[in-house]
Amino acid sequence: MLSEFQETLLQSVKAYQSTQLVKNKYENVLQHLDSGIILFDSDGILTFINVEMAKLIDLPGQSLIGCNLLQVLRHPHLSRFLKRKVVQLYRETFLYSKKFHEFVDEYGRNWLITITYGDQMDGDFLLSVKDVTDFKRIEQTAYHNDKLAMLGKISAAIAHEIRNPLTSIRGFIQLLRPHLIQLGRDEYARIILAEIDRANDIIHEFLNSSKPTVPLKSIVDISTLLKEAVLLTESEALMKNCEVILNLQEDRVLNVSIDTKQIKQVILNIIKNAMEAIEEIEDDHGGIIAISTQPDGEFVNIIIQDNGNGMDKALMNRLFDPFFTTKENGTGLGLSVSYRIIKNHRGDITVDSTKGMGTVFVITLPMVGERL
Q1: pTM of the full predicted structure?
Q2: Which residues contact 244 (CB under 8 A, 6 or more apart)?
Q3: For residues 284 and 355, what is the distance between their CA atoms, to the nearest angstrom?
Q4: Which residues constitute the signal peptide according to the record (predicted)?
Q5: Is residue 250 within 8 Å of 328, Cβ to Cβ?
Q6: Is the pLDDT of residue 371 over 50?
Q7: 217-372, which class in CATH?
Q8: pLDDT band at residue 12, thresholds of 50, 70 and 90?
Q9: Is 21 exposed, middle or buried (0-12, 13-18, 19+ CB in 10 A)?
Q10: For the CA atoms of 307, 360, 238, 182, what is the dihedral angle to 10 degrees?
């Protein structure tokens, strides 16, 4: 009898040890997943948290074992951002039965959160968190490429219809030019013809927007180009109660090797956007668009700042996407083409903005003799 009892006890011990080995094995797997894992039991007590999750919330996992959700939220070292997100997750999960959540953290990373509960979990709640930033980037790249393909088709369809009237207008302006010369207004004809040529160049850019265009470079002083751009926008700015202020490095020549027409197109497009942003503000005070230059080692920065309506971070993240626009009659092509133009010049274009506080665009171009 005693022998049978000992044998049964031995089998029970072996079974327990086997169960523990399996449990430890699975716990070890969960501990080393690249996703954050946290488990609450049916009483709402935190019973498991893996290494990755502890890293994500920047807290030692063992200090949270045995805590309920309220105690976790009251942890003195849990960030305010995470506290707000946990409350939001709790509300959306239990009020709207939402099991999948996506959010962007304060550093711009994308996260996917999955909450599993119900009969299959025996009352437990399993929460997993995964960094999907790379997947989002791939998705956005594919979306961007699809937009470029669509852009090429639309551009080809409209180019013929636009070019015909432009050709007619150009011909009539040339016929009128002798009369304008007699009136001492030849400068008007020159500007009109130059702008018609620029419009034709823009159409050409649209047709070639899905493939790189090699800029036809010449060496120019960036200050001269900016003065011409301001001259072209002064009348429109006056009608829209805007003042364009030009602050240049008069004591230094800032030569760049650029395609003048392309860079002028970029600058005029940003100035036009600034005027429209200023129009959105219901304010009797006039708008200000400040344009300045700033040498930066081997580069020069062109800074275009306005006191318009500004934009939030979500809008800024999509600003250079083809066809993305918030304007009723906009095409969403201007900044997309501008971005590609600057990149083809081995430069960079960035934007910083705050809703209601205005926007700053910075165009960076390499100077002559420096990294051309």
Answers
A1: 0.49
A2: 230, 233, 234, 237, 271, 289, 291
A3: 19
A4: none
A5: no
A6: no
A7: alpha beta
A8: low
A9: exposed
A10: 170
In this prediction, residue 207 has a pLDDT band, given cuts at 50, 70 and 90, of low
Q: What is the pLDDT of residues 62-101, one digit of tens each?
A: 888 888 888 888 888 888 888 888 888 888 877 778 888 8
- What one-letter code names the amino acid at 55? K
Contact 78, 61 (CB under 8 A): no
Contact between 206 and 337 (Cβ < 8 Å): yes
Residue 329 has pLDDT above 70, yes or no: no
Q: In 190-202, which positions are buried (b, 16+ CB within 10 angstroms) versus exposed (e)?
A: eebeeeeebbbeb
Given the candidates 3.30.450.20, 3.20.20.70, 2.40.30.60, 1.20.1440.230, the CATH classification of the domain at 32-131 is: 3.30.450.20
Q: What CA–CA distance (Å, rounded) separates 303 from 305?
A: 6
Of 260, 192, 202, 176, the closest CA to residue 232 belongs to 192
pLDDT, tens only, 38-58: 888 888 888 888 888 888 888
Where along the chain do its domains lie?
A: 1-27, 32-131, 132-211, 217-372
